[in-house]
Each structure stands twice: as structure tokens, then as C-alpha cells.
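Record type: monomer structure entry
Structure origin: computed from sequence
Chain ID: A
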Amino acid sequence: MDRDLKPRRRSRSLTDEERKLWRAAMKDATPLKRGRKAEPAEGAPPPPASTQAAPASPISAASAAIFVPPPKPRPPAVPPPLGPLERRTSQKLARGQIEIEATIDLHGFSQERAHGALLEFIARSRGRGLRCVLVITGKGASPYARHTLHGSTFYEVPERQGVLRSAVPRWLGEAEFRLHVSGFQPAHPKHGGGGAFYLWLRKKR
């Protein structure tokens, strides 16, 4: 038998007198609440913060791995500039041999009203799939206005021209008009001559 082992003491049960004394001593005692952490004593240093970072959530890590930045917005497309018409088309227009599919007469319109009406007319005509339309502006009140069918500077000649006759070619160079119009040229005398223009519209998409 090992010498270091000591004989165990047998526990005995409390007597009735000892139980009465124990209950009397514990009568005013307040039991501690479970789960409540003991508050640090006043003046005691705060517990050291944990230096280990919290493990990343697997969901957030997966989301970061598959995150794709949104695409940058594309700049608006710039309509192509007005270009010369095909030679055969231009010749037929100059001879009045192409059928006019729609006509707008801007006589009596103010510049602001004529600008909006012309743009609406062109957009609507192109939406219908039309290609050749006629815009009548008038020659103005000048007695010297003449038909300049083959002149390259038909709206810059030194004449007292009508306001709209000078403004329409300028408007057609704007981006909102170039979106629908590919080219233009003065009309044949039977369609108004120097006071009207043929507009060749782009194909409907």
C-alpha cells in the first residue's frame, strides 16, 4: 500500500440542531444571479482588448470575391455630319424626277415655331420610313430673290432673303436634325425652286 495515501474521512450527516443553525445563518443571504458578469473594481485597469480580428463571414467574403463594379455610362452617340447625296440621287432631285413623299410649308411661322415644327415633321416622316421630303420656306419679300438651283452658296448670296430660307440650312446642321437627315439641296422650280429644299432622310432603324 502506498504510504502517501491518507485514509479518507467518512462524511456524517448534520444533526437537527446544526441544520437549524445553518438555516438561521442563511436567512438574510441574497443569492447571486446567474450569467451576470462581475463588474471590475473601481480603479482597476480595464481588461486588455483582444488582438485577434473577428473571422470574416463566409457570405461577405464570397460577395467580395464576386463583386463586379458597374460599367461606366457610355457617352451619347454623336450623329454623323451631313454629307453630299449620291450623284444619281442628286441629279434626279435637281431634275424633279424623284417623288416627294411628304411636304411641310413654313410660311407664316416664327423662327421658334418653325424650328419645332420642322424637327417634329422630320422625325415623324423618318419614323414612317420616308426618304425624300420637301420643306417650303419661301424666298422672302425681296424682289431680287432668284432661283439658285446649282449654286453652292445658295443661302449666302447677297440678297435680302427670307429669314426661314436662311435659317433652315443652319438648323439642319444641328445634332438633333442630323440624327434624321443625311443631306439636302435646293428644290426644282416645279417644287418651289429657291424657296424650298429637298431633305433626304436616313433609313429607319
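Annotation 1: Residues 111-127 form the longest helix (17 residues).
Annotation 2: Confidence is low (pLDDT under 50) at residues 142-160.
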